[in-house]
């Protein structure tokens, strides 16, 4: 492609993105295609001759777009959001344009040093303890795996890296912990059977006494506790495990404490919500996702660690071909995680933090929390709806309660969810809490306004009315 055409299609793409985000509300939130439909439209063989950009672009609109679910839709209330923003998109374009592979300092000093600095900005914004150092990982799943590996090495005196796992180590989580922890436990060689799932209280938060009892019982029977993963903002209901009490227990027993705050961590930038990470000085590591609720394009996960020397000792490698003359005085992030090759993710974070400023991000988070509180009030005031978990942040768990037995209620709410989502006007997802089928209203898209939440509530009530007759 010559420069003239590159420029032409570059402008065309930018125009398309701007129009898309301006009109995204017109699409059904969830793609309506059937399994296999998109693939059937794509030829069996790759083209042997190059095709024109006009043809490719037109196929993007004709074939690909109908198979997309629209995460930036203002009526996106599913899962947790993965919100983006114009400054983040622009930075991603520049990143792609420079095409740098930022594995070590020398392969792009700006990438390494900007990452160091923006992670320090984030640490200060959240009020995480001084001395914690940050590194960007692709996802919270990877960050938690990294933590489990560091915990494993610390507890075994770095012998597992050398000799393989010689003994069974235990990992403690709440019953509500994210599935990525179990995945990490499997990958890191702990074995799924060595996860202890600690019961939760009425607010679905880990019960510290139960944790303490489990650790003591395991120790008494000669087992080796290794690590506790606390969740700040569980995926099902945004429950907040009490970090301070859990931290004290970890401290007493000499266990590694990792905090998974993938979604909720962003809320700690609000002074009035800082309590969610009270006790973070006990944490050995902490992760939250700017790619969920901080306007930064997927992927960008912010990982913080207290003992960075142990992290590096867990991952470092010194092949001859990667040695550089400055290794002693710089951070080579290849040794701060699993992958060698690294994207320049700090650039989009820098663009976002500078463009919106701390105030701008705080305002967005506050507004989302305010909208969730409004929605919560409507649920509570309605005789046929029921709130299913405390609302601390921007997630509301609720269900329709038509005075039937539990089993009937589960299928009733399943039907309600499918009806709501079929309208295409909004998207919700579900979970189960203590065995009950529950609908989740997760607010976090950048363009969500009160009108969207009101419209969602109207549709939910209309569909419920249809079901109840
Ligand atoms: C979303 C989420 C994750 C997984 O995040 P990824 O970045 O997609 O790996 C982990 N933990 C919690 C609590 C989450 O909400």
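^ structure tokens above, recovered residues below v
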């Amino acid at each position: 492609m010559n420069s003239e055409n590159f420029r032409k299609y570059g402008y065309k793409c930018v125009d398309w993105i701007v129009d898309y985000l301006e009109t995204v509300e017109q699409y059904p939130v969830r793609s309506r295609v059937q399994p296999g439909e998109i693939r059937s439209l794509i030829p069996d063989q790759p083209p042997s001759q190059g095709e024109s950009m006009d043809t490719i672009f037109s196929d993007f609109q004709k074939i690909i777009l109908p198979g997309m679910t629209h995460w930036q839709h203002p009526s996106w209330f599913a899962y947790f959001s993965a919100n983006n923003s114009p400054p983040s998109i622009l930075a991603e374009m520049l990143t792609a344009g420079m095409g740098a592979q930022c594995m070590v300092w020398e392969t792009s000093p700006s990438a390494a040093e900007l990452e160091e600095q923006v992670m320090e900005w984030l640490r200060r914004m959240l009020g995480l303890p001084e001395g914690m150092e940050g590194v960007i990982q692709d996802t919270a799943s990877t960050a938690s795996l990294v933590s489990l590996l560091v915990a494993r090495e610390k507890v075994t005196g770095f012998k597992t890296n050398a000799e393989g796992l010689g003994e069974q180590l235990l990992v403690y989580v709440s019953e509500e912990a994210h599935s990525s922890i179990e995945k990490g436990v499997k990958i890191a060689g702990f074995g799924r059977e060595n996860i202890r799932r600690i019961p939760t209280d009425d607010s679905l938060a880990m019960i510290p006494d139960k944790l303490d009892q489990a650790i003591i019982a395991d120790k008494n029977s000669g087992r080796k506790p290794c690590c506790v993963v606390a969740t700040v903002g569980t995926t099902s209901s945004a429950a907040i495990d009490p970090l301070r009490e859990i931290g004290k227990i970890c401290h007493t027993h000499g266990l590694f404490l990792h905090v998974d705050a993938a979604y909720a961590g962003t809320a700690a930038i609000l002074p009035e919500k800082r309590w969610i990470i009270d006790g973070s000085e006990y944490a050995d590591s902490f992760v939250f996702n700017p790619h969920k609720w901080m306007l930064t394009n997927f992927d960008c996960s912010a990982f913080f660690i207290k003992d960075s020397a142990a992290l590096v000792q867990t991952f470092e490698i010194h092949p001859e071909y990667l040695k550089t003359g400055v290794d002693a005085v710089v951070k080579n992030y290849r040794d701060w995680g699993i992958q060698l090759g690294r994207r320049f993710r700090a650039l989009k974070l820098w663009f976002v933090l500078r463009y919106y400023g701390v105030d701008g991000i705080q305002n967005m988070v506050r507004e989302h929390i305010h909208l969730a509180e409004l929605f919560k009030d409507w649920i509570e005031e309605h005789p046929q709806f029921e709130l299913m978990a405390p609302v601390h942040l921007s997630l509301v768990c609720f269900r329709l309660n038509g005075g039937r037995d539990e089993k009937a209620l589960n299928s009733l709410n399943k039907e309600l969810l499918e009806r709501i989502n079929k309208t295409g006007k909004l998207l919700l997802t579900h979970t189960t809490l203590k065995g009950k089928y529950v609908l989740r209203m997760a607010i976090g898209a950048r363009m969500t306004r009160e009108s969207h939440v009101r419209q969602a509530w109207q549709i939910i009530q209309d569909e419920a009315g249809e079901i109840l007759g």
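The mean pLDDT is 96.
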